[in-house]
## 1
Amino acid sequence: MAAGLGLFFKAVALVLAPVVLAVALYSPQGFSPAPMPPEYSYGPDVTAPRHEARALERSERVGEGRLPGPEDLAYDAAGGWLYTGCADGWVRRVSVPGGDVEDWARTGGRPLGVVLAADGGLVVADADIGLLKVSPEREVALLTDAAEGVKFALTDGVDVAADSTIYFTDASYKYNLANHMTDILEARPHGRLLSFDPATGRTAVLARDLYFANGVAMSPDQSSLIYCETVVRRCSRYHITGDKKGTVEKFIDNLPGVPDNIRYDGEGRYWIALSAGRTLQWDLLMKYPFVRKLVYLVEKFVAVPHGLKNSGTMSVTLDGEPVSMYTDPGLALTTGWLKVGRHLYYGSLTKTYLSRIDLTKFSADLNE
């Protein structure tokens, strides 16, 4: 029996050896996976002291069938509306708490990040078009689509400061949304953090060489902002004012999943969306560029499952200390979480509805 197994494995090795050699020698045009940066850790994740691991079971659906791929969330407390960008190019709004859905404005692209403007309009990071402003009359205008002569390929997260300056990310200047997994597999820093001044029309690059720059959230004192980098599982603080103006420092890293959007809840916590939990498969992809090249080549011919699960959110203090988590093995690609009153709302790239958790019944804070 042992001899038979030995022959089997030798035969497999003989078959695979030329495949491995071919992959190692072949250089796909325009695709070159890189080793992870030295600071990237394969060690233990940060953990939260309070954890609700059955988020899906605790959730109810809102606007089912009317909201294809609701990505980010913005809440208008005065009007009682929750805004979200959908995969069909529409920004829709949902009544809170009723759940009625209204087509609000169509961008013509793929709206991702959304945030309320001071005049009651909405600023939209449209992955396909650029940074947009939708007026209260629902007229869509392009604010900017390039910086330093480089076009945005994947405009992603956005927030607005009290002085009306808009801060946003271009996740990648190389790959668009349709090819965002290629950017992740390449693991090279194509992302940028930017600002747009509505008074002057000036677009400035604040930080460059970011690993899939994603969500952005202003600090409550307006002195800094937090931005997320999906590939390296971290969020950083960019200082807008003060002695550290223009510098970047660690906010939280070694997250238990890949971060997407981040939102401040007005109550002392940021909520970081985790679009997928960290897995052994993810670690292998990140650790070995060769494996990422193989996946890239195979995906040209067949869809490769990436084992996405344990999506959710982590709430953290203003200093980046974890407070609570909501996850579920059955959740994947949840992209934006927002606390509205006593409910926690979240969207997803793959569902046709928003979900919400009633925190009076199922809050992780009740599990102390």
Note: Residues 2-25 form the longest helix (24 residues).
## 2
Amino acid sequence: MSAHPNLSTTTDLELFIHQFHQAVETESPSNDKAALHRSARLFSALGEGLMGEPAQIDVIDGFPHLVWRFGNGPRRVVLIGHHDTVWPLGTIDDMPFTISGGIIRGPGTDDMKGGVLIAMHALKKVKEQLGTLDGVTLLVTADEELGSLTSRDLIEHESAHARASLVFESGGPNGEVKVARKGVAIYHLNVTGRAAHAGVEPEKGINATVEVASQVVKIAGLHKPEAGTSVVPSFMHSGTTTNTVPANATLSIDSRATSAREQQRVDQALRRLRPVIPGAQLHLDGGINRPPWERKVSAHLFARARKVAQELGHDELKPIMVGGGSDGNFTAALGTPTLDGLGTVGGGSHAVDEHARIASILPRVDLTAGLVVDLLTSDQ
């Protein structure tokens, strides 16, 4: 293994925090393309300052994805992050960027603007040591929070033959890295009945509320926690007024599974649903969004990362499996060794207490830089 890049310094941290402040204050909700373009321009400039090159900005259906592709040869290491957040414009006024007690707070601090900066700062260190980043891709997408609908092809194209994919979502609560994730499937069941006056002639109606209630019971029965599968009927809406037989109802369903087999079982069962009430109609939208990421795909790469952490003098690096999906699900499904959770360590993702711990930043930069150097210089 080649010697690790020089350890990060207080000066590096000061620059990181300054850029973190800029990134958080440049709000970038997933559904606001103008805001996303402002964020993309900022991250391209930050990346140019750190790595020496601006991003190529690939705009797909209005979403600006940033790609740094160093060298023309095969991809050896792909680093993946996203610059969109769940927070609407104006959130920064109620959740300003603040630093107190070693904690940085603000929208996107945990998910995942700090993670993007960790990747950039790590690649700066790799370039300083090796003199090149040939074989490396850094991909920062703009629609992860919406399911990566326009960026998935980019992610898969860059990662398909890589030695490793590194994903910069936040780490576990104690600094763990993520070595497996459940697959994610999201569905929307639409029920069509027929309206009628609830007091005068209810028998002429087809009650969509009763129909959707019957379907909820069936759907909840697909839940199988002993197999690592969750099927949760979540948001539901039906009816218009108290004195009207409901003509329409909608139901959202969130399903997570640890195996492709279980994911397919649930998908097929949902597509076989049939109405209970004569005349009612069912229409199912949605489907599998992210395939399961099974732990075996990450085993060897995690062992490398743990060894790098040990050589850096870090606490023992530990693995964790989580239920939420990420772009790592896509790369792992390709068979590409994948490691996630290399971003900041904090908490409150998608919540008002979103935060990152300052003490986690430099160790994550150094770990990432060391791992990338190892992957670029080792024959194994």
Note: The mean pLDDT is 96.
## 3
Amino acid sequence: MSTRPAADIHGLSAYLRQTGTAEHPVLARIRANNATHRMGKMAVAPEQAALLAWLVRLTHAERCLEIGVFTGYSSTALALALPEHGRITACDLNATYTSAAQQAWRDAGVAHKITLHLQPALITLDSLIAEGRAQSYDLAFIDADKPPTPQYYERCLQLVRPGGIIAIDNVLLHGRVLRPPEAADPPAVAVMRTFNAALAHDSRVIPLTLPLGDGLTLLIRQ
């Protein structure tokens, strides 16, 4: 039996990043800043953003929808992957966090591709539907507060075209969805446990959940 220690998770993540496309300098800066941010755990995992950017290129996506911006890692990665005429509709509530995202967009030269809506995401999503934007998005990324996830998902099903992709982050809640329910669980745990279980029976999508970051679910809209 080998006595060599297994690679630590951080070392493995760094190694895997080296085997892929080089991280854009602006993305590297956002990641470094998030590491010291008091709410840095809200940030998307770099490997998740890399996969989403890869999917944008693979599917020749032109229109993306992001629910939850934080400091802009995923939106910057998506915008860099989009063609010059590509556009992102970004939804968030926090002007302080998204000011950092907007600076990152400018630094990366992609600010013209992104429209930020600073209001509750459900208001923005309902407005887009009312404006006739149904089935106009190629990819939607949900990375926001967990309790409204089912509502975000239902709106995205209307806004994403057939054959398009809906991606949802933090579906594992650091493993809490796997454990038996506890009285101290926040409401998000029960919501996500029920939501995750229902996806396998939802004929409107083809689901795939990957153990990237805190769990990333990818869905093809039927």
Note: Helices lie at 9-19, 25-36, 46-59, 73-81, 95-108, 121-130, 149-159, 187-199.
## 4
Amino acid sequence: MRITLERSNLLKSLNHVHRVVERRNTIPILSNVLLRAEGANLDMKATDLDLEITEATPAMVEQAGSTTVPAHLLYEIVRKLSDGSEVLLSTNPDGGSMTVQSGRSKFSLQCLPEADFPDLTAGSFSHSFKLKASELKMLIERTQFAISTEETRYYLNGIFFQTIEAGGDLKLRAVATDGHRLARADVDAPSGSEGMPGIIIPRKAVGELQKLIENPELIITIELSDAKMRFTIGSVVITTKLIDGTFPDYQRVIPTGNDKEMRVDCGSFAKAVDRVSTISSERGRAVKLTLSEGHLILAVNNPDSGSATEEVAVGYDNEPMEIGFNAKYLLDITSQLSGDDAIFLLADAGSPTLIRDTAGEDALYVLMPMRV
């Protein structure tokens, strides 16, 4: 293999693919990136056996061929080369090493044979549809913060996607929960997604997708089966295994009888929560909301460091009540709201609260209260 390509193009593609590679691997080939030169492109592929990213970048191919080299090492070398330079990649005749040359810099990297590199993309997909990048990004951003990090409840370690009938329309819905809070977002279901199985996309794949959606105007092709899902985002293809588990019936935890409505300016509420929570202990982070007509008092009491209160004007005309929430969870949810006001639908101090965005009905949040 012997190819020349722009350092900027090589770096951009390596930046996309090398993130998948784990720093520590018991299987040596998984530390490597597969490089395949043919036609006028260099194709790169990296995998951790659950997630695979491939990308094609333009190159001047003098001699076609393929090899695998350490992903993080190649990325660091290319990152440190001069801006605007050209990079020559060439393998020696026996394929045991690859030379990286740019200007006066020359590196030799150990190679492993392409034949050892695993392939995740085998198998066919039952459903295929196209979705605007901005819509996929919205579904991910509105729900990602609620993904559970508790490994024992592995079926909550991702975002659940399904198509569902809502208000007479077919919607593509994303849901995430960690048992303390739940986030749900909808977009109009694209053609081809009808009847797709409910699937759970793992947290790592969700994070990579979010980073790869750089152009919101792009149309993304999505293909899926019961076990795998593939996203084509421009020249990047990301394939992920799905979480093999059953997502809980989230509809059961969304309250329907919450009749006490509080409407509050989102920005001033978030700043007030942030200010009073400065004094709370990292472990508890509980903030007490005391509601009366047109009036809200936020209070935090920490036996070790003191107390804090702040008053906020709200739209509320029900009987007075007190309820406690985790301050971090409140801030996570309010940061996702795009409208000026947040609407809290409450029942009592021990029941889950429903939070809606005034900007639209496409997202809702459920938050479990805390004892304060």
Note: The radius of gyration is 25 Å.
